Amino acid sequence: MPNTATLYQCPACTGPLRFDGGSGKLACDHCGNSYETAVIEALAADKERAAAAAAQPEWATEAAGSPWSDAEKAGLRIYSCPACAAEIICDASTAATSCAYCGNPAVVPKLFSGSLRPDYVLPFRLEKPAALEALQKHYKGKRFLPREFTQQNHIEEIRGIYVPFWLFDCQAEADVCFRATRVHSSTVRDEQITVTEHFRLTRGGQVAFQKIPVDGSTKMPDAHMDAIEPYDYKELRPFSTAYLPGFQAERYDVDAATSAERANVRIRKSVEESFSATVAGYGGCTTEYANIALAQGEVKYALLPVWMLNTRWKNQTFTFAMNGQTGKLIGDLPVAWPRVAAWFAGIAAPLAAVAGLLLYLLGEGL
């Protein structure tokens, strides 16, 4: 081993370690700790295994979806938006007069072709009146919301859309290492002494994941789709076009293989958070490394229900999405800045008067 090993880090403070010839150990000049070389080499090997395990797993994406039958294709049509390129699938009796994603009033009907047939569909449980009521409640109490924004013509444009999702199943095997601290303070002869204890904690085990959802649409904001989770998958049904009348369904534009990267991130984050929750009784805890290996998993294609309103206000687009099964709602709201300015002006004058009175009284007292 060379005299210095700057690539090795101190487990306590993450400072660089050097080889101390006198003791035959790796020493840290920052915190004064020293370690046997075998211990540090074992830690380095753990980190290398963690880096290797971070490689993307193989997903069986070819099992997701199936071909459409000729009879199903004959009963479907596609509306294509020339403004944002969204493609909405409807049954032949459903007429689309504007784009559900950008509000563009011109949508062009096209013959249905391509894409995969979903494996599952989760039917809408909540009807349009429930979505309208939830949206109106969302508006209430927002004092800086422009009055014109809540007009009924905006609210009536809310639509029920089956959003394309890829559902990922896999098994994760994890070996996670945490650095934790405990801080003790005491006073001796008018001097405060602080002692920080450093701990290295390891956790390991297996976690099974079923139906991790990743939306297959670039038009749907990922943050909105994450926020309206979870869905109750007990109500999943084998896909049938019988669930489409009265609703629209978006055709996916992000395939399963591309969506797998986001699924991997969500799974690894969930594993690390679940293992971190088992660490208790310490003042601070950080992850040193997470060796998370994902076994080859299975992917299915499903349509999940979302009530959606996309509306524009002063050249900005505001999106509202509500879980069509549970009613959980998320949405962006504009701000009427003149009303904000008026509100601040209304409170500024009384505050200035109070401040002036206090200054006068202080001056008189002096």
Description:
With 366 residues, this protein is an alpha+beta fold. It folds into 3 domains: 1-50, Single Sheet (N-terminal domain of TfIIb), CATH 2.20.25; 59-170 and 205-270 and 296-335, no CATH class; 340-366. The protein has 7 helices and 17 strands. Strands 5, 6, 7, 8, 9, 10, 11, 12, 13, 14, 15, 16 and 17 form a 13-stranded mixed beta sheet that branches. The longest helix is centred in the C-terminal third of the chain and has 29 residues, at 337-365. It is elongated. Mean pLDDT is 78; it is low at 1-6 and 336-344.
Outline of this structure?
The protein has 366 residues and is α+β, with helices and mostly antiparallel strands. The chain has 7 helices and 17 strands.
List the helices and strands and how they pair.
Elements: E1 4-9, E2 16-20, E3 25-28, E4 34-35, H1 37-53, E5 59-60, H2 70-74, E6 76-80, E7 87-91, E8 108-110, E9 120-121, H3 128-139, H4 152-155, E10 159-188, E11 191-215, H5 222-227, E12 237-238, E13 248-250, H6 256-276, E14 284-294, E15 297-313, E16 316-323, E17 329-331, H7 337-365
Parallel strand pairs: 5-15, 9-15, 10-13
Antiparallel strand pairs: 1-2, 2-3, 3-4, 6-7, 6-8, 7-13, 9-12, 10-11, 10-14, 10-15, 15-16, 16-17
